[in-house]
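Usage example:
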Amino acid sequence: MIELKHISKWYQVGGKPTFILKDINLTIKEGEFVSIMGPSGSGKSTLLHILGMLDDANEGEYHFMDQPVHSLKEKQRSQIYKQHVGFVFQAYHLIDELTVYENIETPLIYQNIKTNERKAMVADMIDRFNIVGKKDLFPTQLSGGQQQLVGIARALIAKPKLLLADEPTGNLNSKQGEEIMDLFKQLNKEGVTIIQVTHSEKNAGYGSHIINLLDGRIEKTN
Amino acid sequence: MLKNYFKTAWRSIVRNKAFSLINIIGLSIGIAASLLLFIVVQYELSYDTFQPNYNRIYRVATQDKFDKDITYNSGIPVPALKALRAEFPQIQFGALQSAYGSQVTVPADKNETGNKFIEETGVFFIEPQLFDVFKYQWLTGSPASLKDPNNVVLDEKTATKYFGTWQQAIGKTVVLDNAITLKVNGILKNTPANSDLPLSVIISYVTLEKCGQSYNHFDTWNTTSSNFNIMALLPPAVKMDDVDRGLLQFSKNHYQPLQSNSIKTNFLQPLSTFHFDRRFASFGDHVTSKSTLLTLSLIGIFIILMACVNFINLATALSVNRSKEVGIRKVLGSNRSQLFGQIMSETAVIVGISILAALGITWAVLPYIKHIASIQEQLSLFTIQNLIMVVSIGIIVTLLAGLYPSLVLSKYNPITALKNKMVTAGVSGVSLRRGLVIMQFTISQVLIIATTVAISQMNFISKAELGFNKEGVLILNGKSDSISLSKQSAFKQQLLQIPGVQSVSFNNDPPSSDNLWSTNFAYNHQPDEKFQISLKFTDADYLKTFGLQLLTGRSPVESDTMREVMINETLVKKLGIKNPNEVIGKVIRIGRNQWYPVVGVVKDFKTSSLREDIKPTLITTRKTFYYCTGIKIRTQQLANTQLAIQKVWNQFYPEYAYSSQFFDENIERFYQQEEQLSLLYKIFAGLAIFISCLGLYGLVSFMAVQKTKEVGIRKVLGASIISLLQLFSKEFTILIIVSFFISVPVAWYMMHSWLNNFVYRIPLSSWFFITAIVSSIAIAWITVGYKAIKAAIANPVKALRSE
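Running the assembly step on the lines above writes:
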């Protein structure tokens, strides 16, 4: 599903390139649950952003479902991204002006899905996540765990093949975190490919693979 | 999608209440102001456009080229009418003669003298052919009703005023100026208010054959009166330039044999310039110069721009706060155009709300528009043009205000946006914001300077030494027919019996007026001089009544005809004579008259508005021109004295309606347009300052939030409150000083040319400019002060803890 070849990313600092990622080669198959680990500044988030097509690499090739993402135009890339990728953040990143319902609905709007269809899909998702009673509340009225639940619901609404999560449990207490990780496990069983960045060994254990990053290189994979 | 846009738009407006409010207040005031100005400008531009042949109608006007200057006259000598018809058969001509201050008497059964109406304007002697040129709607009758002498056509409102209903007017008779009996045989629909040819009492032109003299209608090539106009309708194929060439030859043929001291030429003046050309007299109630209309339009555009600037400034400032939302939306799959659409629709919602508010403001203010513009008519807000204007303002403002913020926001890179690291966008946003603030303050300062200059000039005018006494002089308008004249001396005696009356003078014209009676003349048996002199015909009490001062010699002795003359200082100077005593005993001839001795020189007084130079003037006696009665009255018991005067009038002239004005009110009317412009400047300078302060307040409130941490750190490090206030006010002060240097040349140029309209004007001193900069800095500091002080005295621990 995903193939990275010789991916490098650097910034120019004082005329010299400072590498964030250096020569990353990586293959992830459909249905895998991969955890990326590593200390702060090791390039985890950057790698996730490149995988999620939110950021470009300076060098290297990125194939996503046999499409050469690195050489695609913005528009085509955005098309692939909209259809196949969902994102979950540590800080949830819900839109404060929108209700729970509307937050979940937003990605569908950007895919130009019709109102009736949208209603049905959102209703299903709300049912599934058991947040019917909260659908008209605004994000600030929810607890952190609930907010992240909404964030995941929103990431899944467009039925993505790939779910990317940047420390999804970082802001949650351990019980809430466990619930989220159980949910991820469940989703993975249903066929969603998941790549998560995490600090926690325990959370990384939920995945099938762990990739360890250090100073922009893959240290080891297991 | 759109519904979703508007929903989020509404929520974000509600969430950022203060900013939305500032935007909506600024925009709605801006839109209302420019909408009002649009209505005024549009109304002025619409004059006579309802005429179906608007683009083919012309007036045959006259210019006189003297040695040094050219004078223009909307009139033409009367015999030109026949000559034009003979020599330009392809053109349709129609003539009209206007009469001012005519009295129309409507005979009543019981009341012997009838009902008297003074018609200041709207009375015309008109040829049936004029209606080939100008189209009017006839309720009954037709242009043929004006074929025979002693016929009159009334417009609907005048007929109703005279007879109750217009139907009752038909076939009735009225008496014009107690001399001519006229039969009503036609009714016109009222002329629209936006016409420079408002007809109310239309008398058949042929009636003039018998009474032309009383209306200054002389059938000679020597006299040109602006009261006699010839209008022309050109056939579609004929060009104005070709006719003008023909008229040049026509003028040579007819005027050269007259051997006057000027070269007289006729030419066509298009109807489309009637309302805007101040060189020509107008039959309407005012003429508006195109430059005034341009000023109004520019002010309108500026005010809207300022409101847009506020919007852009606040939106870009807020965009830092919104970067997170934009980032999330991008991660959720929104592309740039979708985000752009969303932010634009937010702008559209704010603009929409502002437009509704603006319509409300305009609706409430519209009835007061007559104070800033010469529009007496009740204008309607909901016309097609206005609605088109509102919609286009909406679109333009949305684009202007929304474009930049939408571009900035939609451009954000989602990753950096989510991390709240909007460094790059911030820098460019700030410099644009500075530019916009400079623009705002430039506009406000230009308007402040314009306002103070205009106010000072108008004060200067009202306090100017006029050379005569304008207070407490009552002017009665009368007629100079032989019966009235014979009663004059008894009338005067009776008036002088009234305790409040100090002196009484009969004359043709008060000292200062817009009267254009001037003539060629010769001095001391020499050939005609190269310039014209104005004439005033007055009795011996003129000086005393109006408080004019004699420089040397004496007033002409009382006489029914011309015998002796008095001249003004300016005339002495223009003749190149240093010592006024020299002219005493010399002779002067006006026109082709006899020579008359000069017996006195009067000290200079302002003969017309202060826009013009003092005219060389000759004052002499001639009873037949004494239409005017000037009465100097004591200011105590004014009302009683006026009543007593009216009683005496009615006793002597029961057949004439009593009409009086105070002289100083007449003089104020000279400056009506200037007063309006100065009021306009006051209002709009106020609005401009208000709008820019709103924007400034918004920016500072934003800055206060942004700088909370910085202020906290500085305070912990020991910064004083004063130094913190500087942190906030320094930048704005610099921006204001920069905009000051831009506004100085603009305002100087603008007001310099405005002041040049006046011969008597104030100097454009540096104080006007200093006032502008000092007041704008003061206003800005006050605006910034509250928020800045609040931020500066806040507890630093609190500010830092929130991080």
